[in-house]
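Translate structure to sequence.
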């Protein structure tokens, strides 16, 4: 009787298994990075508090309302949003090449 050895087909599947897991992880990482880029891009286009609709009271139409009322809060939002957007783009470019 032969020693307990897995058939050759089972041995090959165990070697391919980690590769499949890594490919799925890359796909999920790419999905999350694209989601983060989409959300941060949208947040930059429509900031919290909205934008001024007209050029009344010394404001320019399209400027963020939050910036006029709470300048420090707007700066924090702006830099955090820009950092998250760039970080997601940095993650997308190498991961997209691996998948």
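Result:
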């Amino acid at each position: 009787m032969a020693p307990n050895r897995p058939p050759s087909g089972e041995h090959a599947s165990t070697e391919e298994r980690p590769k499949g897991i890594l490919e799925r992880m890359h796909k999920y990482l790419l999905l999350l990075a694209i989601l983060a880029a989409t959300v941060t891009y949208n947040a930059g286009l429509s900031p919290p508090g909205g934008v001024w609709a007209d050029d009344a009271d010394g404001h320019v139409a399209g400027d963020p309302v939050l910036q006029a009322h709470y300048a420090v809060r707007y700066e924090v939002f702006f830099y955090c949003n820009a950092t998250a957007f760039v970080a997601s783009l940095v993650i997308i470019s190498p991961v997209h090449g691996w998948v």
